[in-house]
Protein 1
Amino acid sequence: MAITNTKNINDNLGNVSNPLIYYGLQPALLGCALLTWYLNQDSLWVYPAIILAVQIILGVIEYQQPARPEWLPPAREKIGLVLLVIIIFFYTAVVAAPFYEATLNPALSETRVLLGINIWPYEWPILFQVFLAFFLSEFIWYWFHRAEHRWLIIWRVSGHGAHHSFKNLGAINYGANHPLEYFVLLVPSAIVELLFGAGAAIGGAAILLVTQASIVHSNIPLNSGVIGWLLTTNRYHIHHHSMVIEESNTNYGCAVILWDRLFGTFSNQLTEETGIGPSEPSLFNKFIMPIREPTDSQISPQHQT
């Protein structure tokens, strides 16, 4: 790809055309999402309501102030992606979550009792517990995610390549994962909740994780300065979606960048092109990626040097 495209992708990420959005959107969305959960902890509707509100806010801003105008999808394509994510979420609620309810949940709870694990700081204020659960679950996910990019068998079984196959990213891409990967995505929160006994705090942590995942996939100019020392920003996560395998093997923290900084996988370099290869596979080819990857795929672990 031409150098001019590289300039567009990265310079627009730092284009402070609207300082309020550039500096304030990410912390404001995270704060409002957490506050909404805190005031409505007993409502099951708070979770889909927050997810929907975050997606609407980010989606509107993406069309009004895109970091990369060329990434804006046609209306038909956008609607198709939204419907795909909705279908995957229904699948998660009907298939993946009940599977864990019947298998993983009892196993983790019994393990906690068997090992006598009773270390969760219940005496802390609930918001402190939420942030502890948030950083701890992201620590677990960091290693899961790193393993997906390190070993071909895990890359294939989880279908992680499907998530990387999109050439143009937007906030809605946070949920565009292969159905198989949702079995992996649920594991870190389940471990924190059931093995460590986090309890109610995991609900607030989940809200922060989903909000962060939406933000870091968004096509909006956002600041990576101060907030980027602890939390992942879209500049960092877009780099993880790079088509260059050495660049894709960085910035594994989808919500927390701290672990990448500590374990030597952080990168703040330019991103020339995203995706798994020069072309984006069809929806069918995305679905069968655990069995057969596109011939032009360049970032799977089989290409490790």
Protein 2
Amino acid sequence: SAIQGVESLAVYENDTDNPTITIDGEVANIPAHSFTVVILGGEPTTIANTIWNNKPVGITSNGNTTVDILDSQGFSHLIGFERPTPVTIYIDLELDTNEQFPGNGAALIKAAIIEYAKENFSVGKDIIYSRLYTPINSILGHAINSFTLGESPSPSGTANIPISFNEIGSFESVNITISTV
């Protein structure tokens, strides 16, 4: 069943005897014969109980958050899961606007970028530069003169931004700068 407030999640399993596994070419510290749920949003106790009710017997769940839950017989169990580390994404846009560009066009573009990112760049998903043209171009009345992004203010890049298995791209209006000419 769905957990209220969960925005994004990914589940990683290590079914080997090794203390690490490789996820998309990246070494991940997930203990042998265990799994990690990386989850954004949701109430911790509800998440822990859901993991407990769905995990295989004898297999450890782990992560940077642990919650002590009680099973049906009243025994205590520590259930682990991971909260993703946000990677702040900065965007600078310069637009050449025309009469079709709404008065609140910049705010509409920012909202479109944030919504698109929420739907398309979930936990562990790289930020693909070219995909961001879709929400930008969803607002009429402009041509893009320049578009850069990065992980720090005043970005100058046009490359994709790699996101680790336990991270998530964080898009906020305050970090999207739009200038018009």
Protein 3
Amino acid sequence: MDKVYLFPWEPIQAHAKSILLGGGSPEAEAELVSQRLVKANLTGHDSHGLIRLTQYMERVRDGSYNAGAQTTLLKDSGTMAVYSGNWGFGQPHATEAMRQAIGKAKEHMVSAVSVTNLGHIGRLADYACMAADEGMIGLVFTATGGMSFLVAPFGGAKRSMSTNPMAVAFPSDRAYPVVMDFATSNFAEGKFRVMRDANIQTPANVLINKQGEPSRDPNDLYDGGAILPLGGAQGYKGYMLNFMMEVLGGLLSGGGFMGWKENPPFNNCSLMVVLNVTAFRELPTFKAELEQLIAYLKDTPPLGEKKVLYPGEKEEMTEEKRRKEGFPLA
């Protein structure tokens, strides 16, 4: 493995913002996108961090992304709505969709808002946590509009699905969110970029090459190989979750789904669902019982050098460390 260099996050974020401004983004958009990218690095999810900036700017140059595009409403039925990002950067439009979902859940106790026609939205946890910060449960289901062939369905030897992630966040009195965010494949695609750039092998049983043979070379993914679905020998579970994201994020939003047409544009179409806890329970009681659940699980005896963490705890520890020491860039 090559030597790892650590970089302070503040000047890196400022530099990323300046690149986005140079690409035509208005101030608020450049600030939000750069902040979200660096947040991904700080929490240890380098696959969704600054590694994406080159990809974003390529899409600005080829016209796939419209810097500064405005979010527009396509349909509204009270508790539910559909928005379009008009092919702009994904983060601002996904943020606006979640804001609308939160507002609807405050009024109606539950909401479901889809957003389509937008670029890569980054870490889904960012949006789920917006709801949790308002005392609600946030769920995010995301697809790619029928583009981004990366994952082999369970029992298949060829890639024909995307990584299709999901996220859920719960309100608590903790300083750091209780949140889970994961691809329905063994790894998100960006993890393979990170491994490739760091010149390291993948773990076993997560990747096959284009001949359908097991591989530990991350380059094989970019040579026609495929990521295996989440779950190892029981990968049918990850495949079914992937299928669910394809329907809820892509098909339901009208953003597209795998196999619907040839050469569709990348579209990080998503469904945001918000549940207002107060419709079910008193919020302080919910939070107290969530703490009781976390304490119970963390009291489990450790397995070797491992220990039980609550969802989001690993990110909390990583962010605290990286804010002080810096984070790696290939």
Protein 4
Amino acid sequence: MSHAPCRLVSVRDAGIPLTTLQPLAEAVFGAQGRAQGWFARKLAREAVAARRSFLALGPGDVRIGYLLIGDDPGDRVAHSAGLGVLREHRRLGVGSALIERASTVLLGEAPALQVLAEPPLRGFYERLGFVVRRTCHTLQSTGTGPASLDLREHPPAAWTLPGHAVAGWRAGTWSRTPSADAATVSLADGGAWAHVSREGRAILVQRLCVADDPASTIVARTQAALDELRGRLSRGTAVLVYGCEAVSCITASLLHHGLWRVAQTAVEMRRVIGEGVDKHAGPAA
């Protein structure tokens, strides 16, 4: 595997605020459609740690890539909050080098590193020893009501909710969501509950639970709960539901009715810390 002429340095040792990486993130992934302040909120939600996160610097110490790693006290497994390499520096081993460097820092601190990979990058991560755990969709729809839900009327509750979890993000992310932007809503006549938050003009469903007695009603209750939520949001408001299992009768039902679409698909993958790169693999990111 060839490697680009780059230098790897932790963000902490570089002596720069994590927020200054926003231009690099937008150069890698694009800035269109992102709400103002999105990167700072992402850093806070994911508890990104400067000492665990690394920069790849090219000639003249130009920033060409980064790997962000969260440090969530409530989660033994470390999680990646984003790996990005500028297009002209990809397939030269920069991405794999960043992961290996971060793994040396995580050794002894965490048993594994978890990533959410876009499907085209699954092979890249598999060559680095990551194993697929599950595939999830983020589903998107729009509000249908005359007015928007007032989050202040629904104080955010603890992550654990009654019933069966049919969709969900991460508990740590919910705990770090500012209370002014978070709410816990009862739906479907008390048969469902949702943790929701505001991101720009969109409403994110971070966790959705429905009563599971009897189990045969879970699909119908989920549909009813999300229909009600859409009705409590003003027309045109984007609604995103995170962590929907890709292979699920609930997800299939929501997509079948045409009111929801897949906005993003993520493959949850995990690698045991200390396991090395496949040295015989072809060029990677």
